[in-house]
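From the shared-data thread, chain only:
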Amino acid sequence: MNKNNGFSIQELVVVISGFSLLALISFPKISDFIKDFKINHAKNLITSIVRQCVEYSEINDLDNPTFSDIGMGMTLNPYEDSYGIDYGDHDGFTYNTTISSATPTREYSSCMRLSAKSTSIQGLGDETGYHYPHFEIMYNSSTGEYEKTCVLQINAYNKPRHCNEETSSW
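Structure, as tokens:
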């Protein structure tokens, strides 16, 4: 009477090889999922802050509130050079006053316009490329609309749902 307990070495090799192959196939998808999450988080963060600012503006009849007015003026970013947002862990973005400037948010900066700008791949600026597109949201008080623009830089990870290259919007 021959009892087989467990698996043979050949069966284990086949199973481990199969799992390895699945891991190789799924890793890029996991990496894209993480990138998508970071982009969505940054866009949701700046949208939420500008909406909070607009609400504060309407309640207090104030045309141009600042980050300090809405209670977001005392937190440093990961580089410890700008204020205005509870940055939490470094997410691949820095938060600036506009998409076209490198002016970091400050306590006295208007919170009616805010951009999430991707950090560069090697911290050397645009010659090496960027991780993600840059995003901006601005409340246009004359139209009552939120304007959402984006800029796609060299080597940035993007999908059309993140930044529409044709319209420069999100």
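The first strand starts at residue 93 and ends at 96.
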